[in-house]
Design brief:
12 helices, 37% helix, Immunoglobulin-like, 5-stranded antiparallel beta sheet, alpha+beta
Length: 434
């Protein structure tokens, strides 16, 4: 129990009366009367506060929250007393959340629920616990406050931001790829899997014409093809030290995970099976599964996956993937290629290329582009621009070495990664390479 500002003000007033009595301005009876009155009120008010029952509290929070998105959390309070109550409320939220709208002072009405909302933003993925709700009750005369804890434990999971997936669910796979910014050159009827026969249309190629069907129908009939379905896509995600770099508010691995989920959703909509293998630091393996419903279990397996400050062994990852995934697949390897890693990475690509089609997506830090485009004004600026140019040239040579060994290489920043992955995936599908 702590004295409230009103009680402190009363004590200060009593001290002022004491000074007046000491200088002979007021009689001692006034000081005695004021002291007895203040002590009596304080004791009665403290007793009344101790008798107040703790309000009931119910927290309203979703079981799953998206990373980096401001979300509303509700608290509902019900006083257990027959009269109103003033209370200060603060929630026991996880330290990894930023909060707006707490603490809050409320005047609870008798026998009535009082609800309010505050907003929380999660800045790291994983599982987090909400602890007790902290209440500070005010005494009836506002002379004391008392802290009470109400058990309202809850566990929430912070997933990657899945809002883009909800938005893309309104579109077909081709339309969704365009929304992401993928630039595709599609010709009607192209593909590797027969779809249907239809009447010839202007612009159809001669190789699409089914001459036997045209003879029977006495008009030109064309074959329609579509991309082959029932293929397999494996997402090979680096969880080592390269993914600890940050662009904007999130780590490179957060950006990689978001882009991978978008690619997985597109591939599942295309009828392919999608699996995932995280390697380097923390390791996870998810067998390829088909159908849009496979995305939920994938989210549940990787939502708490975090990069670790360890070196990535690409060759070991390729060996393990070869044992776990014998069927020919499109392997999408997402990492940050450095020249010192190129020999190990080349060995991994050579091994994977014996059975699979390989895409290497090399995530580039935005700071490199900013440094490359900097206009030097001082000697330090010139050093930065020169060092960046040397580094980027080494990076380019590493990418060329990977291309020379048959890998499809993407050199993109975190903003361009989703569209680049989808564009290359659909291009490989339409070219019938897989």
């Amino acid at each position: 129990m702590r004295p409230a500002p009103a009680l402190i003000a009363g004590v200060l007033l009593l001290a002022g009366i004491g000074l007046a009595v000491a200088f002979g301005l007021w009689p001692r009876t006034i000081l005695l009367f004021a002291s007895v009155l203040l002590a009596t009120l304080a004791l009665l008010d403290a007793f009344a506060l101790r008798r107040l029952r703790t309000p009931q509290v119910q927290r309203e929070v979703a079981a799953i929250l998206p990373l980096g998105v401001r979300r509303e959390i509700g608290l509902r309070l019900h006083p257990a007393n027959a009269r109103g109550l003033r209370v200060d409320v603060h929630d026991g939220h996880p330290p990894a959340f930023s909060i707006d709208g707490l603490p809050r002072r409320l005047d609870l009405k008798p026998q009535a629920n009082t609800r309010f909302e505050y907003h929380a933003t999660a800045h790291e993925r994983g599982q987090y616990d909400f602890t007790s709700v902290q209440l500070r009750l005010h005494s009836p005369l506002r002379l004391w406050t008392q802290k009470r804890l109400v058990d309202a434990a809850a566990t929430v999971k912070v997933y990657p931001d899945f809002a883009p997936l909800k938005r893309l669910a309104l579109f077909g796979a081709d339309q969704a790829s365009q929304v992401l910014g993928a630039h595709l050159r599609r010709r009607r009827g192209d593909g590797t899997e027969f779809h249907q026969l239809r009447e010839y249309r202007e612009g159809d190629s001669l190789r699409q014409i089914d001459w036997k069907a045209s003879q029977r129908a006495r008009k030109l009939i064309s074959r329609d093809y579509r991309e082959e379905r029932n293929q397999q896509v494996m997402l090979l995600l680096d969880t080592g030290r390269r993914m600890l770099a940050r662009d904007d508010a999130h780590s490179h691995f957060d950006h990689v995970l978001n882009a991978s989920l978008l690619l997985a959703w597109i591939a599942l909509r295309q009828g392919d099976a999608v699996g995932l293998f995280a390697h380097g630091g923390a390791s996870r393996f998810i067998k390829p599964a088909r159908g849009v419903g496979a995305l939920d279990p994938m989210l549940g397996h990787v939502y708490d996956l975090q990069p670790q400050p360890v070196a990535t062994d690409y060759l070991a990852a390729a060996t393990e993937l070869g044992l776990r995934q014998p069927r020919r697949s499109l392997v999408v390897m997402i990492t940050n290629v450095r020249d010192e890693d190129v020999e190990d990475l080349l060995g991994a690509v050579r091994q994977l290329r014996r059975r699979h089609v390989v895409i290497v997506a090399s995530l580039r830090e935005k700071a490199l582009d900013a440094a490359r485009n900097l206009e030097p004004k001082h000697f330090d600026d010139a050093l930065l621009v020169g060092a960046t140019a040397v580094y980027l040239d080494d990076r380019r040579r590493a990418h060329e070495a990977l291309r020379a060994h048959g890998a499809s290489v993407l050199d993109v920043d975190s903003d361009a990664l989703p569209a680049a992955l989808v564009e290359r995936y659909l291009a490989i599908k339409r070219e019938g390479i897989l």
